[in-house]
Amino acid sequence: MVDVAKLAGVSQQTVSRVVNNATNVSPDIRERVETAIEQLRYRRNTAAAALASNRTMNLGVVSYALSVHGPSVALFGISEEARLNGYSTRLITIGSLDRASMRAALRELNSDEVDGVIVLAPLYSAVEMLRGIETDVPVITFEQGSPETSMSVSIDEVTGARRVVRHLLDLGHETVWHVEGPPGWMASTARHRGWSAELSAAGRVVPPVVTTADWSAESGYRAGLELADRPGITAVFAANDPFALGVMKAFDERRIAVPADVSVVGFDDVAEARYFQPALTTVVLDFEEVGRVAVERILAMMRGEDAETIPLIEPMLVVRDSTAPPPERG
Questions:
Q1: Quick check: bond before 259 cis, omega within 30?
Q2: Can you tell me the distance from the alpha carbon of 165 to that of 173, in angstroms, rounded to the nearest whole number?
Q3: How far apart are the C-alpha atoms of 59 and 114, rounded to whole Å?
Q4: Out of 45-54, 125-134, 163-172, 202-211, least confident range
Q5: Closest Cα partner for 169 from 143, 132, 138, 206?
Q6: Least buried of 9, 68, 146, 164, by fewest C-beta within 10 Å?
Q7: PANTHER family annotated for this entry (predicted)?
Q8: Which helix (H) or strand (E) holds 236?
Q9: Backbone phi, then psi, for 154, in 5-degree steps?
Q10: 192 near 226, Cβ under 8 Å?
Q11: Which residues pair with 93 in a beta bridge?
């Protein structure tokens, strides 16, 4: 760090600020320091930093159902933001959502091992399990579709679902059917709430939902077969992109064209969504940002900063080829 400071013509404290991603550094000084770091191939000594700060330089993550898109991408965001701040991450996955499992996971990630914990289990039962469990380190949760709080990170999924419905109504569809996510997941409730609220606000019929057991394309396929047997459907909002893929597969088998006969919209914007046939209209949810914000808040809590409300992350509708005006009735 001494060599970097000399080469950049700044103090060691300024180098430390840049390394720790502090905001109170001017752009030109930051560029000089980063150039010096690159030239000297400087790497932060995390062991020395841990000794100097009396911290472990580790962040813990408790996760459930990492095979689901949102938590898995959020985990990547956590690991990248932690790395940029000189931290390593320690992951513990839990197989069941009961108080004993949650308590055991948090006990394993005790204050001797990590400086903070992020819980990636956006289900109502997981949030309930956390209540009453005391920890020695700060804890931040990922709670999809929940209101703003100072202790959880969330995406405004209600607004995202409303934008889906508004897009389809603006195309001329009379109403929108919904393939709902599995019970217990916060995302399922938030997306259902936005869907029904927008239809009700527009004075449209709110059809019965089609339920699913999990987040898989197979569940979407079964839902699609059920919808194919219902006459008069022109628009479907699937609670995630794999559902939408399964629905379109079922429709194709029943000779129902997308979007000529029925428009289909997904949610999440998985990497493959633009390569579906047709390319899928969906909603972008920035789960990497969820991870980044969670780490940012944990570090702020460790610095003793006031716990401010964490703003909801904004969703974005991406219109592709799977939506169109409804077919003209003869």
A1: yes
A2: 9
A3: 5
A4: 45-54
A5: 206
A6: 9
A7: LACI-RELATED TRANSCRIPTIONAL REPRESSOR, LACTOSE OPERON REPRESSOR
A8: strand 235-238
A9: -145, 155
A10: no
A11: 63
Extract the tokens encoding 257: 């064209």
- Euclidean distance between CA atoms 201 and 253, whole angstroms: 34
Q: How confident is the model at residue 15 (pLDDT cuts 50, 70, 90)?
A: confident
Among all chains, which residue has been given the structure tokens 């103090």?
A: 11
User: Minimal CA–CA distance to 84: which of 152, 10, 34?
Assistant: 34
DSSP string, 156-215: -HHHHHHHHHHHHHHTT-S--EEEPPPTTBHHHHHHHHHHHHHHHHTT---PPPBP-SSS
Query: Which tokens is 166 given?
Result: 């508004």
Distance, in Å, from the CA atom of 72 to the CA atom of 66, rounded to the nearest integer, reads 5
Q: What pLDDT score was predicted for residue 112?
A: 65
- The whole-angstrom separation of Cα 116 and Cα 138 is 5
Find residue 281's DSSP bridge partners.
265
DSSP states along 103-157: HHHHHHT-TTT-S-EEEE--BHHHHHHHTT---SS-EEEE-TTPPP-SSEE-B-H
How confident is the model at residue 181, as a pLDDT? 97
- Helix 27-40, helix 12-19: angle, nearest 10: 90
Phi first, then psi: give them for residue 310, nearest 5 degrees. -90, 115
Q: What single letter denotes the amino acid at residue 291?
A: G
Mean pLDDT of the chain: 90
For residue 123, list its beta bridge partners.
185
User: pTM of the entire structure?
Assistant: 0.81
Residue 123 in contact with residue 187, Cβ under 8 Å? no
State the amino acid at position 282 in one-letter form: T
Q: Is the dihedral of CA 224, 226, 231, 234 positive or negative?
A: negative
pLDDT value of position 45: 56
What the chain holds in terms of domains, given with CATH numbers, is 2-43 (1.10.260.40), 56-155+286-314 (3.40.50.2300), 157-285 (3.40.50.2300)
pLDDT band at 305 (very low <50, low <70, confident <90, very high): confident
Identify the CA nearest to 123 among candidates 41, 54, 184: 184
